[in-house]
Amino acid sequence: GEKSGYSVTYSYDNPLRPGRATVIEKELYVNGRREGNSYYYYPTGELKQIVYYKNGKKHGLAREYSRDSTLITVMDYNENYLVNRERINRRDSQGRKQGTFREYDSSGRIKKEENYLDDQLHGYYREYDGDGELVVAMRYERGKIVEEIDEDIRELLDMKNTYDEQGRLVFQGGYREGVPVGIHRFYDTTGTVVNAYLYNENGQKISEGIIDIQGNRTGAWTDFYNTGEIRAKGAYLNNQRSGTWTYYYRSGGIEQKGRFERGRFHGDWTWYYPNGNVWREERYLNGREDGEFVEYDQGGNILSKGQYINGEKDGEWLYQVGDHTERGSYIIGLREGEWKYYYSDGTLQYEGYYSRGNPDKKHKYYYPSGALKEEQYYEMGIREKNWKKYDEEGNLVMTITYRNNVEQRINGVRIRLPESDVTLIR
Description:
- This protein has one helix at 151-154; strands at 5-11, 22-30, 33-34, 36-41, 47-54, 57-65, 71-78, 81-87, 90-91, 97-104, 110-117, 120-121, 123-128, 134-141, 144-147, 158-163, 169-176, 179-187, 193-199, 205-211, 217-224, 230-237, 240-248, 254-261, 264-272, 278-285, 288-296, 302-309, 312-321, 324-331, 334-343, 348-355, 358-366, 372-379, 382-383, 385-390, 396-403, 406-410, 413-414.
- The longest helix is centred in the middle third of the chain and has 4 residues, at 151-154.
- The chain has a domain at 1-87: Single Sheet (Histone H3 K4-specific methyltransferase SET7/9 N-terminal domain), CATH 2.20.110.10.
- The chain is built from 1 helix and 39 strands.
- The chain is mainly β.
- The protein has a 24-stranded antiparallel β-sheet that branches. Strands 1, 2, 3, 4, 5, 6, 7 and 8 form an 8-stranded antiparallel β-sheet that branches. Strands 9, 10, 11, 12, 13, 14 and 15 form a 7-stranded antiparallel β-sheet that branches.
């Protein structure tokens, strides 16, 4: 049949790994046409582009990354035609930030958006929570905050200043009908900002910390839920999260803890259940998973364990899924080689081979007694040949014959089904 499954292209020209294979393309095919996300890499192995295909054509969003994993271009395609291209997170020849800088969370939602001119914040600065809701909005001109909230609301504000006995400004903030809104600053006797509160448009304090004269967050900061409980504690350096950050449940228990470097996850991170038990342990490098990953249930039993390299699963992995355990290996995020599943008592439940993420060759399932339950056969994700099912006594109860992923016969009797031009990758 036509090509289906992931097609992986390798190069041996990586100067960092002379003589060793490096993945440069990983493309998903269905019935001979590219479908879904395809991945393209620099010669040295770093991810360069993620492109979405539909019916063999570029369609929807495509993303381009620099070698340090920074997203630098977002493109929108409609059946191979480039509809829009936005360059973000860019620096000029002198290394200065220019234009829009944007960060996304692991699910693809915008986490933070900044605008720069000659390495200074210029334009709107926005932060969003995990649900995609806007939680902070400020406007900068040449590195200084000139507006913290929407203009329509600002016109309705009553700006209040408080002075000490010597006439020095010690507090400045805006109110709307008595409700605090935007940034409220506190000053020492030298005029230096020593603390600031950030309020949303409903008067709820969402952050507390120091904003320097350039308008950057710096030093220790605390974020709050809109109901007042502490949400996170950590530090900023040049307006980016830096060092150790701790996130909390509304109940006060720790939700996750780890380090940031230049605003990205870096090093060891640990997640916790509400009862305080460890949920997940993993390592990051420049914002991508890199190193050992372990996930636990609330009783401390391992649910999954393995390694990541540059954000992709790699090497041996283990999963505890319901009543059985799964073991096998990945290469660049795709199942590769032999995989086996075991019942809770250690009895073999399943064994099969994978190639580039697709089931391949013979796959076998077993009853808890160890008796053969089912035999399947694939050719690179396509169902082929005779599939057999047995009862627990070993009697053959059904045979299904496949050709190019389509059922041809059941127990030797030819069947006719409506044709479909879509081959599903299992």
